[in-house]
Amino acid sequence: MHAQEKKSIPKDTKPDTVFVTEKPKPKPKPNYAADMKETVIVIYPNDTAPKPKITYKDTVIIIKKGLTKDQLAALEKEKAAEIMKSNNFCQCIKMDIDVRPVLQLETYLTYKFVFKNTCKVDVWVSSKHFRFTPYNAFDKPVKVLRKLSFVKRFGHPDFVKIAPGETYTFDYADDAFFEYDLQRGETYKFVFEHRNFGERSKLSPEKTYLCGQKRVQMITVK
């Protein structure tokens, strides 16, 4: 085989086609800042549109003030009226008995009913309806010899007014031996009672103490 001869191209002669190889140019980065535009949205109030709830925070200071004299007086009157309607003074009239634990044979039995008014209004207590009943060691009533009311008593008006906070004493004296079969040397349980459950007269005051209370005292006959 023969080698191919290379022909030289003259310098003044230009080739018809020239092939040029170029590197690709990098794509420019997008300019987002230049592309962004400011958009302003304006919202106009609309009465028909739902409105947001507004929460208010505040501090409330409560100042307690005392009652006036007139208010206190009115309150006391209301309490007194409630007591009179509910229990007719039975809870606020305190009763005690004052009697000696030894009784000499054939002598008068003297005893006292002491009432104290803890209500806020005046209360009228009847001077009647006081009694005593002796019981023997078997807790049975002693035999009655003669039924008597009062043999001897100290004078009291029919109705005694007891003011709020006031104490009043009813003094009485009875011949217990004339009425009951009491024996010397025996000890008896005497039950002293004030009982007024509604008896009224035309002269009785409106605010009358209509209740009943009992007190017990052991008494020995000498």
Q: Which sheet architecture does the biggest sheet show?
A: 4 strands, antiparallel
By DSSP, the count of extended strands is: 10
Any low-confidence stretches, pLDDT <50, length ≥5? Answer: none
**What is the CATH H-level superfamily of the domain at 91-221?**
Immunoglobulins
**Shape field:** elongated
β content, as a range? 25-35%
Number of helices: 3
Q: Give me the CATH fold name of the domain at 91-221.
A: Immunoglobulin-like
Instruction: Work out the oligomeric state of the chains in this entry.
Output: single chain
Give the termini distance in whole angstroms. Answer: 180 Å
The average pLDDT is: 76
Strand order of the largest sheet: 1-3-8-6
Short key terms for the protein model shown above:
single chain; 222 residues; alpha+beta; four-stranded antiparallel sheet; 10 strands
